[in-house]
Write a structure and sequence with these properties.
250 residues, mainly alpha, 11 helices
């Protein structure tokens, strides 16, 4: 991959943000996604970003492994698997322009969902777990999350919406999210490798960028108890919208 020093610095900052997002604000990865898709060919960027995300997932699991809610995870996995398969079939068909446009549209959709999520959480109490409605919601979010994470590594906002609507508190939210994405992202590796999105060249770049994930994760761990969540979400939404528009209008 022919990248300049400035390109590498942008990717390194995005990798650090992955670590921060995994241990502090799930869903902020959309900013990293926009950076990777802007610096690299959009289709290939998903393969380069995936090992970086897995590195962040490992660090998040080591930090919050005891706080996961496994019944919720088992409820989600079948629908997520279906979404990953649909996303893989889409990537077989899609060229770079279609993937770039799809990523841009997904980013804008995720920004809209996040805005709706924040208003919903503010205006009404999140429902608890349980019956048929909860299972239907888990299936719906699971399929969308599986598709978006396979096509654009953009499942974070979808799953954040689901976990918050289910009434998860901060630590259980982060623990459940950490295990969810470690398992899902790891399961995507054979699909991405089969599509040619992960190869020796991309892994060499990943080996360099992974070094920046750790400091980001450590900063996130320190900040998670002190961070002004509302302001940060507003910044993430603004950056996501700008990233999505840049990809759509390029």
């Amino acid at each position: 991959m022919d990248i300049t020093l400035w390109d590498f610095m942008a990717l390194a900052a995005a990798a650090a943000l992955v670590g921060f997002a995994k241990t502090a604000v799930s869903g902020a990865n959309t900013v990293s996604l926009a950076v990777f898709a802007a610096v690299l060919p959009a289709r290939e960027s998903t393969g380069v970003l995936l090992p970086i995300l897995i590195t962040g997932d490992v660090l998040a699991v080591l930090t919050y492994r005891r706080h996961a809610h496994w019944p919720t995870l088992w409820r989600l996995f079948p629908a997520v698997a279906a979404g990953v398969v649909v996303g893989t079939l889409f990537l077989v068909w899609a060229d770079d322009e279609a993937v770039r446009t799809s990523i841009g549209a997904i980013l804008l959709l995720m920004a809209a969902i996040t805005v709706w999520r924040r208003r919903a959480v503010r205006d009404e109490e999140p429902p608890g777990s349980a019956g048929h409605g909860e299972r239907l919601k888990a299936h719906s979010y699971g399929v969308l999350g599986g598709f978006t994470t396979m096509v654009a590594n953009a499942g974070g906002p979808v799953m954040s919406l689901y976990l918050l609507s289910a009434g998860f508190r901060k630590l259980s939210f982060l623990g459940t999210s950490a295990w969810f994405f470690l398992i899902v992202n790891t399961s995507k590796v054979p699909f991405s490798a089969g599509l040619g999105l992960i190869d020796g060249h991309s892994l060499l770049l990943d080996a360099e960028l992974a070094l920046f994930v750790l400091p980001g994760a450590l900063i996130g761990k320190v900040c998670v108890a002190r961070i002004n969540q509302r302001l940060f979400e507003q910044l993430v939404i603004a950056a996501t919208v700008l990233g999505g528009l840049e990809l759509l209008l390029r």
